[in-house]
Specification:
Radius of gyration: 20 Å
Order of helices and strands: EHEEHEEHHEHEHEHEHEHEH
Number of domains: 2
GO molecular function, one term: glycosyltransferase activity
Helix content: 25-40%
InterPro entries: Glyco_trans_9, LPS_LOS_Heptosyltrfase
Shape: globular
Enzyme class: transferase
EC number: 2.4.-.-
CATH class of the largest domain: Alpha Beta
Strand content: 15-25%
Protein name: Glycosyltransferase family 9 protein
């Protein structure tokens, strides 16, 4: 059995799609699955079971990337084609069943949109795939499982970024004597490139030897393994936030101009802190330290109660 799964360009959307893939793997355990995705999201699927191969769709002028995809897959007959980009591509290849998500903005969470495509209610939660080598590297980088707070102070858009000094203050409040995560250290995560490095730099400088700098240093399966070792993740709306939620780590997403009703973290232990006036473009500075701290404490208390 062959399945063609056309996923997303961005990491966050790709992570959200992993729940559907996990459902397909469990339903058709002997199927060979080809995943098409954008270059930055490739690592999301690198450790996926039943993955026959990954087709990287690097965007090209005049939509030439779709032609390249067609040339790679049109020679086979597919049992199932899932297209999460809402294109006409599924009708250009031979397939027994086609599932194409509807384009345009829809009400509700993105996860519900994905589940509805296959008639799944509730929709399957995202998963994070990583192997023993990834776990070993994570253990070397972060010795002492559960004694780390992962911070994601970066994003792909500066208006989504909570002020660096508040990340620092939140970390200190959570790790002070008598606090929920007393004595924990920080793992600072972010994507590659100078923009994300600049966003993370003030947090790294302020925390000094209490923080490990992992910004842009790891492949996505290694990031997932690192997140799985942490007692808590706090970060802006980003692919890292969604990946953290997929690992099962308690995940607090910070929201300003993002659409929290559509992109809140989806996982077993998640929460959000939303700026007043969200999703206004200038709303993120309005998210106070007190609001974020209260949300983090509630999330940690719920974990203990569970």
């Amino acid at each position: 059995m062959r399945i063609l799964f056309i996923s997303s360009t961005r990491i966050g959307d790709a992570v959200l799609s992993t729940g559907l893939l996990d459902h397909l793997i469990r339903t058709y355990p002997h199927a060979k699955i080809a995943v098409a995705c954008g270059p930055v999201a490739e690592g999301v699927f690198a450790r996926m079971p039943n993955r026959a191969w990954t087709i990287v769709l690097a965007k090209r002028r005049f939509r030439a990337h779709w032609w390249e995809l067609w040339r790679e897959v049109a020679g086979q007959r597919w049992d199932i084609v899932v297209d999460l980009r809402g294109s006409a591509f599924a009708w250009l290849v031979r397939a027994r069943k086609r599932y194409v998500i509807r384009g345009g903005r829809q009400p509700g969470h993105r996860l519900a949109h994905l589940g509805a495509l296959l008639g799944l209610d509730p929709p399957p939660l995202p998963v994070a795939w990583f192997n023993q080598a990834d776990r070993a590297r994570a253990a070397k980088l972060l010795p002492g499982e559960g004694m780390w707070i992962a911070l994601g102070p970066t994003a792909n858009w500066d208006r989504k970024v909570w002020p660096a000094e508040r990340f620092v203050a939140l970390f200190r409040a959570l790790t002070a004597p008598g606090a929920p995560l007393e004595g924990a250290c920080a793992a600072i995560l972010g994507g590659p490139g100078p923009q994300e490095r600049a966003m993370a730099a003030p947090v790294l400088e302020a925390l000094g030897d209490r923080a490990v700098d992992l910004v842009g240093a790891l492949a996505l399966p290694e990031v997932a393994a690192v997140l799985a070792r942490c007692a808590l993740f706090v970060g802006n709306d980003s692919g890292l936030m969604h990946l953290s939620a997929a690992t099962g780590t308690p995940t607090l997403g910070l929201f300003g101009p993002s659409r929290v009703e559509e992109y809140a973290p989806a996982g077993r232990r998640t929460a959000t802190a939303v700026a007043p006036g969200s999703p206004a473009l200038d709303s993120m500075p309005g998210l106070t330290l007190e609001s974020a701290l209260a949300a983090a404490e509630r999330l940690l208390a719920a974990k203990v109660a569970a």
